[in-house]
Amino acid sequence: DGVVVTEKVKSNNLDVKESELETEEKGTEEEPTKESDSNIVDVSSGYPREKHISIQRDFAELEKLANLKEEEKKPCPLCSEEKYKACYSHKLHRHLLNFHWKVSVEFEGYRMCICYLPCHPVKPNVVGDQTVSKMGAHYHCIICSATIARRTDMISHINRHVNKGETESRFITVPAPKNSHQVLKESATDVRVLPNYSTPQKTDSYFNPKMKLNRQLIFSALAVLAKERTPIDCLDAFGATGIMGLQWAKHLQSSVRVTINDCNENSVAMIQENCHLNKMKVKMNTKEDDSDEAMGDGEDSTNTIEVTKMDANVIMHLRSFDFIHLDPFGTAVNYLDSAFRNVRNLGIVSLTSTDISSLYAKAQHVALRHYGSNIVRTEYYKELAARIVIAAVARAAARCNKGIEVLLAVALEHFVLVVVRVLRGPNSADDSARKIRYLIHCQWCEERIFQKEGNMLEENPYQQLPCDCHGSMPGKTAVVLGPLWSGALFNAGFLRRMYFESAQYGLDEAQSLLKTLVCEAECTTSKHYSIHAAYEETKQEECGVYIKTPSTSPESLVYRKRKSDDVTRNANKRQKAENSAEHPAFYYNIHRHSIKGMNMPKLNRFLNYLSEAGYRVSRTHFDPMGVRTDAPLAQFKTVLLKYSTPTYGGGQVEDAEVLEEDRSGAAATVCTEDCPPHCAAD
């Protein structure tokens, strides 16, 4: 009996404690809080729970929380009394704005402001015999309610939640739940993306707003091809969100039959969603059947996009296309053989490489592994990267008995874009393969030259370099780079038509770059181009065919195939005649070769001085301070020294006067009637 009594007493004591805990919890729930939003639900527990007062939607709610009144002093709701004393409304408003709101962390419409309340205690400091405890500044995580001290750590903490897929907050408002998708707009095309579209997981789709210029250039190239033949089958092999294929179908309409492919289920679902968002019909095709055309000629392809879920290599092996764009994550060399297998004659293949660490010589072993090329960091490293990619493209095309003509090569901060036209036949393949050569690069003065054609071994390869660094410097001074593409990087006629299409569709970012590319392709400093005049000049023969333009009659057009061997021979003769007028390979950076203690001339004036000396010159998009010219480096430095002025000081005044006389005399002898007005004024 005694045992039973003691067990009953224990059970009664436990019941009393549980009842006391329940009353305490009810009391805490009934206490008034300083929170503005009351309908907050904790998803993890399922019962109403209020978020921390430092998490607010806008600044007005934070001011309302402080209960600002002009005649009364109010304390800061996010600071302790020791940290910030009560003050009038104008000072409190400034304090809330500068010390809390401006340093907040934003996530899905909420602002996590910095908090100085005793929520995150710091280790006490022992000063003499007394211990001083401080309450540290911290942030409250809206997802997991953790307290983080630093703002950068808080941002990293939120990003880790996003990368894990934990994008739903513990505190969600009941009347207006927030949609996890975000709608972005580019070139009159809406695309729905995930909140982590800039830093996605492996299972999410990726959308990079910084690649807008890349998408505009590819669209302009496709628009030019659409004027040559209609309709054309085009493939976006790595769709992601489908933004590129949607722009093609929305603007070019019946001229193209668009296929968007991706091997990820989430990306395919996102593409279908974006097609419906832009009022496009979707035709799904997930079967790997050998059907050359999924959308037949009898089927209405207007406003219809075919979405496929296959590996990119598989769909390019199974079907033929006129236009293929490759934009994988990193290098595209793994997909080149499949791309050139079934691409149609005179079609276009474009590829975007984002492995800039290897292409820009930061990871040289990776470039050797992926592209089979040896590179070093040079002043012309961006053009070197473009020529490495084109060499890989030419080798892949030659394996399929196809040649290439480079239409466009762009290397910018985030990507390398190459657009080539495909020429069928072993003769074209041999011509392209012969343009892959090695480069001799001097590491002292950065002079460079392509190795001579032929297989015979030279006794002294240093003799090919125009510089004399090997004779004046000790040791080995040059390295062999490559193999690289040694041909032209641009087609001036195609670039002019791209400029016309970009102006017609209002692609502002692409227009400015295409102007520079046209000047670079023709190696000229003139920037005054008329759109209509440039478009009329495209009545030329390219790749052995006459290109379809509005200014040519339909009877004079030859489509897709070259009619006879005479046309091929004439095209080869034309290309050989134009090789002498190709733009020079590589460029020099004017800052890299400036003379110490001398002030360089302005870049545009220096271009005029080189042109007056009898050399072809132009600016380049690869480097804002680069000069593309056929002048050797020695002549480049001579002209630069001739028109540079010394930094005046001490005993350099006499030398400056002599250089000034030489400069004025040289300018007087060189100036002619065709000289620009500003040169005569100087």
TrEMBL record:
Name the source's superkingdom. Eukaryota
Pfam families listed in its UniProt record? TRM (PF02005)
GO BP term, example: tRNA N2-guanine methylation
Which is a Gene Ontology cellular component entry for this protein? nucleolus
GO MF terms here are: tRNA (guanine) methyltransferase activity; tRNA binding; zinc ion binding
Query: Can you state which reaction this protein catalyses?
Result: guanosine(27) in tRNA(Tyr) + 2 S-adenosyl-L-methionine = N(2)-dimethylguanosine(27) in tRNA(Tyr) + 2 S-adenosyl-L-homocysteine + 2 H(+)
What keywords are assigned to this protein?
A: Isopeptide bond, Metal-binding, Methyltransferase, Nucleus, Phosphoprotein, RNA-binding, S-adenosyl-L-methionine, Transferase, tRNA processing, tRNA-binding, Ubl conjugation, Zinc, Zinc-finger
Residue ranges, compositional bias (Basic and acidic residues):
14-37
Ranges for the C2H2-type domain? 141-161
Where it sits in the cell: the answer is: Nucleus, Nucleolus
Positions of the UniProt region annotated as Disordered: 14-44, 557-580
Major location category of this protein: nucleus
Its family?
A: Belongs to the class I-like SAM-binding methyltransferase superfamily. Trm1 family.
Report what the protein is called.
Answer: tRNA (guanine(27)-N(2))-dimethyltransferase
The organism of origin for this protein: Psilopogon haemacephalus
